[in-house]
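#structure-requests
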Amino acid sequence: MILAFAVRREIIPRNPMKETSRMKKPPHTPKALTPDQIAAIRLAAREWRTEEGRMGPRSDGQVRDIIEVMLGTATRIGEALALRQCDVDMDADPPRVNISGKLVGAQRRRRAPTGAPQDARVEPGHCCAEVRG
């Protein structure tokens, strides 16, 4: 924008950026959490705001439950917060969750179609109790 402005004002003869191309990003390979990382996340979520003498509101367990849902369904925070009761099928074998939206600000938005699967298997050891509500 600034270089185009400079060309219009005849400060420079041409815009050198017109001959350039965007840099290509290397493909991103997702990395799975290690068992030690998962254990550390669970411990931090379980102990969040539970110290004796802590000022402010005590934890009601919602942070812990949301993190368990994220670990058990491999969802991002916005997808986990946008889950509705109709998205969950606990009677299926294995239980499944339909990831059909995400939370943006305070609004739920339908998820744009991408290459990522929209159906997630619920890992029984992780979050069945939290998903059942």
